[in-house]
């Protein structure tokens, strides 16, 4: 099954009076690369969220965004460092006695000591929170997968059309193959006659044998056979129920190699046009394959 690496999924969960939104986005990447952006007080669940991604996806750059709205998720508590405050009061008394100062320590003075008071957030119910986050994450991933599958179906149709075009061109090349070999043989004979300065005697078997050997080098039968095999392999790979992007990328490289060889063997104008058409279609296949998981 063809599955794109581009997708997006989102879901929300409610815990007490707070709303948690989870967004998952994925784009092309050679491997599976996961990045998270979570509130500091939710970092404890980061690895669990990443594991959920690894269970479902094989490739792609995946970004996870978690945002929290509302005040019911974490309870805020104020802590007072009485030990430090005792030291402040003691020092104030020392200063007062030493310099014969008047006045008492007031609440206003204490409230201005920023290091005396600290505010911390306490999870109201960690188990419930984790369960809600994981469930929301799973649903967001399902939405992302659905989008990747939908995009994959579109790519699958595009692949089939381009493979049909390539197959049609290969059939034209197959029909013209004998003519290509004959034209190549004639060009070799003409070149030899040009350098020899006279027409060759048909009975000169040694020369004709060499012409035949050189003509075989211009035969594209093997390249056409391998190209057909690569097209078949591409089609069958599209039906595999696994990550197929890397396999398809390799097949496209081999297709490109064979077409280049065909182009180097023929000087025929029509064949050259077909080779250009093949290269164009294969290049488009290559571009699309980069988005396949």
Automatic annotation (TrEMBL):
Pfam families associated with the record: YicC-like_C, YicC-like_N
Domain Endoribonuclease YicC-like N-terminal span(s) in chain numbering: 2-156
Cofactor(s) this protein requires: a divalent metal cation
Coiled coil (residue ranges): 156-190
Keywords: Coiled coil, Endonuclease, Hydrolase, Nuclease
Superkingdom of this protein's organism: Bacteria
Every Endoribonuclease YicC-like C-terminal domain range: 174-293
GO terms assigned for molecular function: hydrolase activity; RNA endonuclease activity
NCBIfam families membership: YicC/YloC family endoribonuclease
Protein family per UniProt: Belongs to the YicC/YloC family.
Protein name per the record: YicC family protein
Organism: Halobacillus salinus
